[in-house]
């Protein structure tokens, strides 16, 4: 088991439990609040809190088997945050319940297996092994950020991954990875892009609409004034367009608009 050692003061044990319980309540909200490729300050604080809990030496020194089981039960119940522990050989020593959901492997299947054989994309295996080896040997930490890993069925898994090393400088260092599943966030991003396109593009001609033009042109005028630069606008109209609609029908009028747009493009 990855959590061993000398007795822990009860006060410290309760502090850890209290902070973990609070994190369990906050975690789902943190995931839902992810709206862009960059982590917000709140999200960074949430990740820092979790990393700090893992980083706390008391976590690796729980007093009894009962305490160890209680801690593992708490960390197993954290929603949407997959946590894995690896030894120096990159073999899994810890795999929580969220990791089972996100990556598809049960804890029994994952324990003892190497990271690169479980969740590393084939094209990135050597790079991941090299980065982890450099961290162990040279102290060059694996950077946090959005990455694509793979699940048991070799399907891509989009996560925000942070890392912490325990026992640095010892013969038995351990790396813990804290991964937030971004699947729901990716879906929201796609939906937002679709909605944004509908709001800014004309359905018939597939070019920017008046709403977008008014918003952009206002900003252009402001910037031109601030930087004392020139700004030009080209405007044109279609003569006798009403006659086209009245004579040939609106379908032909629509096709005429589309053809004109293609010429202008």
Structure description:
With 265 residues, the chain is of the alpha+beta class. It folds into 2 domains: 10-185, PAS domain (Beta-Lactamase), CATH 3.30.450.20; 189-264, 2-Layer Sandwich (Alpha-Beta Plaits), CATH 3.30.70.270. The protein contains 11 helices and 5 strands. The protein has helices at residues 10-32, 41-55, 65-76, 97-103, 107-110, 115-118, 125-138, 183-200, 210-227, 241-248, 250-264; strands at 81-86, 92-95, 145-150, 156-166, 174-181. It has a 5-stranded antiparallel sheet with strand order 2-1-5-4-3. The longest helix is centred in the N-terminal third of the chain and has 23 residues, at 10-32. The termini are far apart. The model is unreliable at 1-9, 34-38 and 57-69 (pLDDT under 50).
Please indicate the count of domains.
2
Question: Could you name the CATH topology of the largest domain?
Answer: Beta-Lactamase
Order of helices and strands: HHHEEHHHHEEEHHHH
The main pleated sheet reads as: 5 strands, antiparallel
β-strand percent reads: 5-15%
Overall pLDDT metric: 76
What is the CATH architecture descriptor of the largest domain? Answer: 2-Layer Sandwich
- Considering the protein shown, what is the CATH homologous superfamily of the largest domain? PAS domain
Radius of gyration: 27 Å
What is the helix fraction of residues, given as a range?
40-55%
Key traits:
265 residues, alpha+beta, Beta-Lactamase, 2 domains, 5-stranded antiparallel beta sheet, 11 helices, elongated, disordered N terminus
């Amino acid at each position: 088991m990855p959590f061993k050692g000398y007795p822990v003061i009860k006060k410290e044990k309760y502090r850890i439990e209290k902070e973990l319980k609070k994190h369990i309540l906050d975690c789902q909200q943190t995931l839902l609040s992810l709206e862009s490729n960059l982590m917000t300050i709140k999200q960074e604080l949430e990740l820092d809190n979790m990393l700090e809990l893992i980083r706390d030496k008391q976590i690796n020194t729980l007093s009894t088997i009962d305490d160890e089981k209680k801690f593992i039960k708490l960390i197993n119940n954290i929603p949407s945050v997959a946590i894995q522990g690896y030894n120096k050989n990159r073999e899994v020593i810890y795999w929580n319940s969220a990791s089972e959901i996100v990556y598809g492997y049960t804890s029994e299947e994952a324990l003892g297996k190497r990271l690169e054989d479980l969740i590393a994309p084939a094209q990135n295996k050597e790079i991941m092994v090299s980065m982890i080896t450099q961290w162990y040997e040279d102290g060059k930490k694996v950077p946090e950020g959005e990455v694509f890993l793979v699940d048991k069925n070799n399907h891509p898994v989009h996560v925000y991954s942070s890392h912490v090393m325990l026992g640095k400088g010892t013969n038995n260092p351990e790396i813990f990875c804290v991964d937030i599943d971004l699947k729901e966030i990716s879906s929201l991003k796609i939906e937002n892009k679709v909605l944004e396109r509908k709001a800014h593009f004309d359905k018939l001609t597939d070019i920017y609409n008046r709403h977008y033009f008014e918003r952009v042109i206002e900003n252009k005028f402001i910037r031109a004034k601030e930087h004392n630069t020139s700004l030009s606008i080209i405007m044109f109209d279609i003569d006798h367009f009403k006659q086209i609609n009245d004579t040939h029908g609106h379908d032909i009028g629509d096709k005429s608009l589309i053809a004109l747009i293609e010429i202008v493009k």
